[in-house]
Amino acid sequence: MTLWKQWFLTGIGSGQMTKKNVNKPFIIMQKLMLIFCCILMQCSLALAQKSDLDLVKETVQNYMDGGTYGDTAKMAKVFHPTAFMKFVDVKTGEFRDVPIARYLEGGKASAGKKADRTTKIVNIDITGTAAQAKLELEYPTFKFIDYFNLLKINGEWKVVSKIFFREDKK
């Protein structure tokens, strides 16, 4: 009888000590090792999958990196095509509503140039398929505070709206 047949036929709880199952401790150990390996594989797969928090951070980081290095193509991947940027113009006090495509088009003038700024994610809040992120983009003479609303669409986090405030340094 092959070891595999013996393994399946004797069973852990048979309690019989015959010539066929004299190696029972060895067989039990093999079964436990197999179970352990299966559990270990499941844990590894679970750890390999990124959490929603990691995915939102990655999305926001791509936006910040794209802006810092003048990579509008990288920035465009972050936004849903119908996204809008909304803000109040600090000079005129007027409300502005700009389609993201127009915003990205304006960024092409600085394509490939590294911006003199530091960036940080202040916080991220996620509930189900909705998320909100607050960012700070600090330049030598002013700072932007951006708020992103994101939705998980077809498994990808996309910015659907952006609002911001520009704060001049004194």
UniProtKB/TrEMBL annotation:
Name of the protein: Nuclear transport factor 2 family protein
InterPro entries per record: FrzH/put_lumazine-bd (IPR039437), NTF2-like_dom_sf (IPR032710)
Organism of this sequence: Emticicia agri
